[in-house]
Write a sequence for this structure.
């Protein structure tokens, strides 16, 4: 099947430019106007040729009264004859015209058919890859470890450090995010993608959850502090995987598809096109004090959980 698609794509490489020209000239306003201009120029060329021929004939016979100038009424007669002959030629060549039209439609149809088939095959492949990615993310995973460095009662300010778990390294990332925030009732906010009715829903992975900011009882949600939990390719560390742990897709494809899933979180139109039922927020909170150590988890059900580090 892949070889057939490859052959058709090669054939379409030759057909597509012609198909695009045909579509341009017969469906677009500019194209139709261009064809009309060409037709008018052709008529004017033939008319000019006939008038010049008639003028030379007058000169040849030594016509008196104008040295070969064709009278206006005769010019009108020539114009009528040219248009009539052109019309009769078109009528007499209707079968040829129809054959040309059918051929042009055939070229466009073949080209568009190949494009549709190629697009369908690529979409099916993408769906298969996305289903595989969702299966690989269908687990309970650790997101981050939070250390409450200090809480100042007088200023009502909390200082904390956050380390994010990197599943490619099977351990915490070396990158530490330091956060200072007003208040001590700390909220971790996440965005949830619900794939329940999506074409790419697979297995039990109905929701994908990504924590993305911190706010508190003193800092409103809209002014929360963004979490720096992505790598240089904007892939969340919690969704990274070691090459040996990735199956059914190549590591590059895995990264590409995870990036696509992440784009759904900010592009609602794209998310709807992918069949995502809903995108909503999910925040969990904890009243903290100096010395607390917390761990944030995501459950298989798609919920965000925050617990003390001692036991889970």
């Amino acid at each position: 099947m892949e070889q057939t698609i490859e052959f058709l794509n090669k054939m379409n490489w030759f057909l597509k430019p012609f198909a695009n020209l045909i579509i341009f000239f017969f469906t677009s306003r500019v194209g139709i106007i261009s064809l009309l201009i060409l037709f008018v120029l052709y008529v004017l060329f033939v008319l000019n040729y006939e008038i010049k021929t008639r003028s030379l004939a007058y000169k040849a016979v030594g016509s008196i009264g104008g040295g070969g100038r064709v009278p206006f009424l005769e010019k009108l007669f020539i114009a009528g004859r040219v248009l009539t002959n052109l019309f009769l030629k078109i009528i007499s060549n209707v079968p040829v015209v129809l054959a040309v039209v059918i051929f042009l439609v055939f070229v466009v149809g073949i080209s568009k058919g190949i494009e549709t088939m190629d697009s369908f095959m690529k979409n099916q492949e993408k769906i298969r890859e996305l289903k595989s990615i969702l299966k690989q993310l269908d687990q309970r995973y650790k997101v981050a470890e939070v250390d409450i460095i200090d809480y100042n009662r007088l200023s009502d300010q909390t200082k904390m450090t956050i380390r994010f778990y990197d599943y490619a390294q099977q351990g915490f990332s070396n990158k530490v995010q330091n956060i200072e925030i007003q208040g001590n009732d700390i909220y971790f906010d996440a965005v949830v993608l619900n794939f329940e009715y999506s074409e790419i829903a697979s297995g039990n992975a109905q929701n994908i959850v990504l924590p993305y900011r911190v706010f508190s009882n003193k800092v409103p949600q809209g002014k929360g502090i963004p979490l720096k939990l992505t790598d240089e390719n904007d892939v969340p560390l919690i969704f990274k995987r070691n090459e040996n742990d990735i199956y059914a897709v190549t590591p590059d494809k895995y990264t590409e598809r995870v990036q696509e899933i992440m784009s759904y979180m900010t592009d609602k139109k794209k998310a709807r096109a992918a069949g995502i039922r809903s995108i909503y927020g999910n925040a969990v909170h904890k009243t903290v004090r100096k010395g607390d150590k917390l761990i944030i988890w995501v459950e298989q059900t798609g919920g965000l959980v925050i617990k003390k580090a001692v036991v889970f």
The first helix runs from residue 2 to 27.
